[in-house]
Amino acid sequence: MATAVNFEPFTISVPATTANLGPGFDCLGLALDLWNHVGVSPSTSLEITIEGEGAGHLPINSRNLVYRSAVRAAREIGTTLPPLRLEIKNAIPLTRGLGSSAAATVAGILIVDQLGGGVFDQDKQLSLAVDLEGHADNAAPALWGGACLAIEGPESTNLVRVLPFPDGLTCVLLIPEVAMSTREARSILSRRVPRTDAVFNIGRVALLVHALSTGNWDDLGLATEDRLHQPQRAMLMPITPNLIEAAREAGAYGAFLSGAGPTVLALSASGRARDVANAMEREALENNLPARPLVIAASRAGAAVVAGI
User: Fold this and answer.
1) Which end of the chain is more exposed for a tag (fewer CB within 10 A), N or C?
2) What CATH number is given for 10-163+299-307 in this structure?
3) Measured between alpha carbons, how far is 172 from 265 in angstroms, rounded to an integer?
């Protein structure tokens, strides 16, 4: 049996995220006020417990994504992990387009950063997350918080800019009780797109950034439209356009598929949020889709480390 390495227990907290925000495919993301927490303490062998989302289904051995991400981060600095006890408490639904894998990946990286006394700056944390995740649209807001623009910069670097996300917008989620594989949702996308569709999305992304910067919420209806991924992904869940339309008719400023789906997220004034949630839930029930609504805020804060568990 290994000898425990002594360190003060700590907790990693990572928010859920929504990617794309409609037209910003693979480059826009937003942190949400819904969190996973990982308590880390010394042990004599690897111990993992999971409460909440994924309990009874996610691996509690070395195949666990939090642990695998930590192993990868430790390798980056030429070390190995000491025996750890990980107490994972998940509030982020799995395979619903809300960044659960990005949250697990970021948590693992931050475990190593904390154990090493701050060995990674934020850019390195992001590059490690992208190496594991494949792209930065979820990882960037999970680390930075708020709304993030994340693109590939010179020499394959990751360029991130935090965008304004003023008070006054509430996030209304309709979370179907069915899983959606990101790999499957990505595999059905066309490798080539018409120029008109590319121009359509470029204009919508520009309008979206302007709307967030100025608080011109009335533009969000147009600004969250998309032709690059949502129409194709609607083949996997044909009710998606109906849910978006139901949210808009109930008073949402705009609505879109959250990441690869199947969750639909609407942006609403707080006073209309419950009406929007009810409208999407009714539409789901009328189409025999089991789903639950959730009204939450965007999170200005990203992942954090706090003392104790």
Assistant:
1) N
2) 3.30.230.10
3) 6
**Could you tell me the CA-to-CA distances from 209 to 20, 29, 148 in Å, in that order?**
12, 12, 10
Bridge partners of residue 307, in order along the sequence: 10
| Residues counted in the chain | 309
Q: How many CA atoms lie within 13 A of 201 on its CB side?
A: 20
Locate the domains of the chain by residue range: 10-163+299-307, 170-296
pLDDT in tens, 214-224: 999 999 999 99
CA 110 to each of CA 12, 38, 73, 130: distance values in angstroms, whole numbers, following the listed order: 7, 10, 9, 14
Amino acid in position 151: I
**pTM of full prediction above 0.90:** yes
| Fold of the CATH domain 170-296 | Alpha-Beta Plaits (3.30.70)
- Are 15 and 34 in contact, with CB atoms under 8 Å apart? yes
